[in-house]
């Protein structure tokens, strides 16, 4: 069956001359994904049909580079090509039934230690992309997949683009994680814009929310991002250490020149950031609470839950509770 961007493929349909559809995995902003059997490799893979873009070239210069990209931190690309006569681009990768880190981090993020581990993994994968002369252009939690061992692999390389001699590529990105300069007149993607998106992704892993307020219509979100309107990670996640918060804020600098110079630099900064001895994470807010956090067991210390309970304008009580529901001595209002 010839490929077409305007049709869906039922179970059993053939795509091109080598892929048989097993099931529909869903559609996103930039394409439609299917679980297919690759009859050449005799295995199931994920196949993404990329949505055509205005002014898109008939050839896909990056395709061969994507197939050659190999790293312990990248989702392997088996095939990237343009189907003729439709000129529809497609990419096949390993199928990852473990899902993506975006789902794992919803709605309140993961522990600081887990966010750092995944952030380092993503940064190493992104550094490999950059070393190949490409920019990813769509780093976000939904494009980072988990292995059975719980490691993070940066994937969805279909929007990757070759950097020109001046180090820029055409603008692209997802509103929640795109860098402000990409959206301006004459905006371009660079290594620095990918670093911003990396920072926004780790921000989400820590808090379950993005630097920019993503509520409302897409255009409103884009306007906020373009204007540099963003929240601080420690305002949404007070469990984040000052050291780790500084790494995230550095990545999210409005001026690209103020960001870390490479994804590898980000990996090193994350790995060396000091964190609290006790493992903390946000938890869903209890009814009428402003914010709730959980602290795991720390040596002989029991796990605790800490909640901010509003009592009036700009005032709240801090409640500290043990697993039994009892309040430890000294817990009270602030």
List the defining traits of the structure above.
six-stranded antiparallel beta sheet, alpha+beta, Transferase(Phosphotransferase), domain 1, four-stranded antiparallel beta sheet, Phosphorylase Kinase, domain 1, 9 helices, globular, 334 residues, 3 domains
Task: Describe the 3D structure.
This protein has nine helices and 14 strands. The radius of gyration is 22 Å and the shape is globular. With 334 residues, it is of the alpha+beta class. The longest helix has 20 residues, at 112-131. The chain has helices at residues 63-68, 101-105, 112-131, 180-183, 191-207, 218-226, 233-236, 242-251, 263-272, and strands at 14-15, 19-28, 31-38, 43-50, 77-83, 88-94, 134-135, 144-146, 152-154, 161-162, 280-282, 291-295, 304-312, 315-321. It folds into three domains: 14-94, Phosphorylase Kinase, domain 1; 101-272, Transferase(Phosphotransferase) domain 1 (Transferase(Phosphotransferase), domain 1), CATH 1.10.510.10; 283-321.
Which structural class do you get from the secondary structure elements? alpha+beta
- Strand-and-helix sequence, N→C? EEEEHEEHHEEEEHHHHHHEEEE
Rounded radius of gyration (Å): 22 Å
Q: Describe the biggest sheet?
A: 6 strands, antiparallel
* Sequence of strands across the biggest β-sheet: 1-2-3-4-6-5
Note poorly predicted spans: none
CATH architecture of the largest domain: Orthogonal Bundle
Number of domains: 3
Describe how the helices and strands are arranged:
Layout: E1 14-15, E2 19-28, E3 31-38, E4 43-50, H1 63-68, E5 77-83, E6 88-94, H2 101-105, H3 112-131, E7 134-135, E8 144-146, E9 152-154, E10 161-162, H4 180-183, H5 191-207, H6 218-226, H7 233-236, H8 242-251, H9 263-272, E11 280-282, E12 291-295, E13 304-312, E14 315-321
Antiparallel strand pairs: 1-2, 2-3, 3-4, 4-6, 5-6, 7-10, 8-9, 11-12, 12-13, 13-14
Helix pairs in contact: 3-5, 3-9, 5-8
